[in-house]
């Protein structure tokens, strides 16, 4: 996939967050604790959805899939970032950099499509409640999930292929804590307009179409909720999709600030800060948002944790 004979650079040096040594150690433990917490909360959600019969519904099936995605999403960037706090220099091979870029973009693109699938699920549940069991079958949910993963990984394969064909020579200092598109193309020593154009066009396709489907779904949802005569009914209907809507807003806000800002107001230092929020703290917030606003999930998690503690104590006593 990558032609090394057109590349004069065999590895990149990740700058990360250069600062005082004591602050490097502090940041290491901060991001390590955050990383472990994200893994824990997503694993808890996956296990809870898996073992709780009352959560075997399309909405929670998608939630478990999202948690599975977030687990891999944060694992693509954070371990290398943690190494950067302790290692100097923090290097990554050309192949390793392209691989990290591919999985990072693939999982991000998959999340775009998966969020649209979740919005469609809420649209059917609120606008067509009587037909919901017939329309949102297990087979159809699996098809939506597979389509999300295939589209994300296929589009990203084309994007990374063209980026990997760009010639890099001389400077190999990557002013970032992971391999992202803009910092990589900044190091190109030849014209990279083709790679930039392909990346832009495919990004528009994978972002705009799912976003349009999500916005359209919520337009119908809002219209249906407003036609509910009682305020109690409106609140109950909106509560079923409020968590997903908040996650959508956070996700696309981060994407827009990261990749759609004019170059005049963009800087690599601010990009690294926004990337840290986008790649680390957003995955931490998503499970919390879903759980705090959903009593069914909270109760199921409490029961799962209680069962786990009881089983642990039983094994300890035996």
The gyration radius over C-alpha positions equals 22 Å
Number of helix segments?
A: 10
User: Sheet with the most strands?
Assistant: 3 strands, mixed
Straight-line N-to-C gap: 54 Å
The percent of residues in helical segments reads over 70%
Structural class: mainly alpha
Name some characteristics of this structure.
mainly alpha; 10 helices; three-stranded mixed sheet; single chain
Description:
76% of the residues lie in helices and 3% in strands. Strands 2-1-3 form a 3-stranded mixed beta sheet. The N terminus is likely disordered.
Please outline what is shown here.
The chain is mainly alpha-helical and 318 residues long. It has helices spanning 21-51, 58-86, 94-127, 132-135, 138-164, 181-186, 193-226, 231-259, 268-292, 295-317; strands at 11-14, 90-93, 173-174.
List the helices and strands and how they pair.
Elements: E1 11-14, H1 21-51, H2 58-86, E2 90-93, H3 94-127, H4 132-135, H5 138-164, E3 173-174, H6 181-186, H7 193-226, H8 231-259, H9 268-292, H10 295-317
Parallel strand pairs: 1-3
Antiparallel strand pairs: 1-2
């Amino acid at each position: 996939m990558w032609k090394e004979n057109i590349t004069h650079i065999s590895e990149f040096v990740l700058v990360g967050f250069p600062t005082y040594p004591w602050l490097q150690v502090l940041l290491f433990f901060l991001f390590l604790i955050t990383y472990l917490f994200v893994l824990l909360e997503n694993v808890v959600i996956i296990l809870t959805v898996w073992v709780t019969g009352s959560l075997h519904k399309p909405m929670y099936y998608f939630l478990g899939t999202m948690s599975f995605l977030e687990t891999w999403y944060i694992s693509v960037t954070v371990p290398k970032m943690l190494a950067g706090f302790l290692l100097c220099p923090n290097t990554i091979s050309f192949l390793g950099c392209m691989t990290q870029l591919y999985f990072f973009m693939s999982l991000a693109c998959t999340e775009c499509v998966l969020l649209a699938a979740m919005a469609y699920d809420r649209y059917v549940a609120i606008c067509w409640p009587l037909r919901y069991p017939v329309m949102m079958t297990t087979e159809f949910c699996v098809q939506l999930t597979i389509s999300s993963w295939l589209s994300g990984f296929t589009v990203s394969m084309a994007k990374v292929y063209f980026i990997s064909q760009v010639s890099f020579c001389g400077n190999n200092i990557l002013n970032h804590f992971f391999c992202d598109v803009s910092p990589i193309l900044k190091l190109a020593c030849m014209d990279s307009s083709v790679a930039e154009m392909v990346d832009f066009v495919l990004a528009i396709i994978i972002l705009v179409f799912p976003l349009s489907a999500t916005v359209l779904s919520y337009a119908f949802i809002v219209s249906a909720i407003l036609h509910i005569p009682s305020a109690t009914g409106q609140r109950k209907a909106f509560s079923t999709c409020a968590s997903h809507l908040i996650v959508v807003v956070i996700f696309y806000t981060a994407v827009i600030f990261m990749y759609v800002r004019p170059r005049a107001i963009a800087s690599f230092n601010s990009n690294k800060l926004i990337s840290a929020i986008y790649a680390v703290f957003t995955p931490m917030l998503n499970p919390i948002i879903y759980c705090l606003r959903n009593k069914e999930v909270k109760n199921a998690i409490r029961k799962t944790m209680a069962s786990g503690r009881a089983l642990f104590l039983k094994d300890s006593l035996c």
